[in-house]
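Section 3.1: Structural characterization of target chains.
Under the original work plan, the team committed to producing a structural model for every single-chain target entering the pipeline before any wet-lab resources were allocated. The record below documents one such target. The sequence was received from the expression subgroup and is listed exactly as submitted; it comprises 355 residues.
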Amino acid sequence: MKRLPQIDLPALALTLMIGAAGGFLAQSLHLPLALLLGSLVTTGTIAAIGWRPFGRTVLLPPRLRLAFVPVIGVSIGGAFTPAVMAAAPAWWPSLLALFLFLPVSHAIGYAIYRAGGLPRTESFFGAIPGGLIETVQLGEEAGGDPRLLTVLQFLRLIFTIIFVPLIFTILTGGAVGSASGVSLPAAAIPLTLPEIALLLAAGALGFATARALRFPAAIMTGPILFSAVAHATGLVHGVPPAWLVGVTQIVIGCGLGARFAGAERRMLTRAFALAAATSVATLLVAFGFALGLSPLVDEPAPAVFLAFAPGGLAEMSLIALSLQMSVVFVTLHHIARIVLSVFVAKAGARWLSKG
């Protein structure tokens, strides 16, 4: 019987404490996706500079991080409410346009990264406009450097969720998104015991089924699919509680941050500049799509722009909520973007394996 590797429990506890401190600090500053990004930045910085607090290395076993990933999938699936499914047919032009927006944005990002001297595998997966956790995982499986992939995807996400709220804050004169204090409605719905059992089953059975069927990023796509069915049919109305999602974000943030051990500063600096250029280019493409699609879907251009801006699903939806735009419209498009991005990443892994 294969023995599990020994884990430095004090180092693990210290890592989670450092990550939690960074997450709560970011939350107190009203930053977007605070717990995830705050824990990632704090642990990632410590790992990158090689600091050993109390003589311990920042670490988080991959198995522990993966154990929490289905929570995010189940939460995303909670956006597939009966209202979303009923409204979806009227938005077919913009949903169909995602099949053009994603390859255009991806190609631009890939070209920028390659022109900047990044390797092909890292450029391909780093430029995919969606799915930070999934693309890093698939890119690593394809032989890419998980540290560089995490940097590129993290910066893509953070630049977008900084630029977009800033744009709307300037235009409206007030705070938007999570900084405005709003939260998604489903997060406030208490779960009954049967619903808790169904969500647990959605996470476990979704992963097992998706893995058996060889779905891309099965640990994420399986729970999303099963949770989506449960919510769309009205069997479940709420999502995992905020505290569990918060713990999950800290664990995932620490797991990604710990991978920065040994990262070269030169690589980080170059990735920062290239990711900033890619984010600006992608947002310009999203703005162009918004202008063209707005009359076709009977939604204001700012709402379409939010639906296409490749930031966090929760943050873009919260911005729409704070601006009293169509949250359902924005949420559905980001779910579709993430799912399509995962399939693009999976297809890309096959392409790269063929040389």
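The chain has a mean pLDDT of 81.
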